[in-house]
Amino acid sequence: MRYAPLKERAPGRSLPTNLIRNQLLPHVAERRPGTQILDIRRAPAPYRSSWWLENLSLALDDGTVYHLVLKDLATTVPGSRTDQVKPRAVMNPDREPWVYQTLLEPSLDGSPPFWGTGFETDGGESCMFLERVEGVPLSEIGDFDAWLAAAEWLGEFHARFQGRPSPGGPLLHHDQSLHEWWFQRAVSYRGTEAFLGLESVHRRALQEALRTEPTVLHGEFFPSNILVEDQGGRYRIRPVDWEMASFGPPSWDLAALTSGEWSLRDRTQMILAYGRAAETAGSPIPPLDGLQRNVTACRMLLAIQWLGWGPSWVPPSPHRYDWLEDARSCAEEL
Q1: CATH topology for 136-333?
Q2: C-alpha distances in Å from residue 224, one per residue of 37, 41, 47, 218, 228
Q3: What is the pLDDT of residue 276?
């Protein structure tokens, strides 16, 4: 794919339907040889993202209907300011399609089936097609069992890749240089006074996090990026939005899931659910106090990353939280 600068979609602008049809023809031919596309119905996707999303309903001449999501990998939603605050050093439009093609298995992990990528006409920016899956964001679910199910899913997913070399590709790698860069970026935006006493603790948090055996990470395992399908009392977890997929400490994803104003009891319950699932799947898990400390270290690193996104950026509502106070709170625990 061509690596183009991010841009904000102009109001009222959308990809021509004929262009979408042409991009989808080879994917339809692969799945339903000999069929033709009769109709494409389009609607804005109901869930918020920094990237432009559309729901597509594809009607074929044999009566088959496919429900897809089009995700524009180079164009952001008006007002999101993603093009201004997402550092190009960590953004790569090749990453998410690569993860779907290379690492994810819908039958195992509930991920949306990947159809393929396409290109826009005005400069060659890329877009991606996925099958639409059932579910609502975890952030909208009050049943704590759904949160425990997400923690269990995460433990099983991490266990599949732990103990193996990095898959490579365009994955981010959580190493010392990346997190030192995030800290300096946050300081440059917020001022040195805001981080008094935190730099040395940040170094300790980084050492603690990097002691663990790395694995493939979602990268932004926040509740708003986790779709949950209620299957009659059993929750199926379907993470989406893999733009920040990476290789690093497992507790990074667990820190994202348990971020926010949780009680110690509830956070501990999610950590325990994660540990049991990972251990059952064959992954070595430290004792609870060690795992909690590692999650706290990653929560601090995560808070610093949020503070480093941009000088005046306000996170979307699911992530609107006092991240500086969270960093200080984690520092006290460490």
Answers
A1: Aminoglycoside 3'-phosphotransferase; Chain: A, domain 2 (3.90.1200)
A2: 33, 26, 9, 13, 10
A3: 97
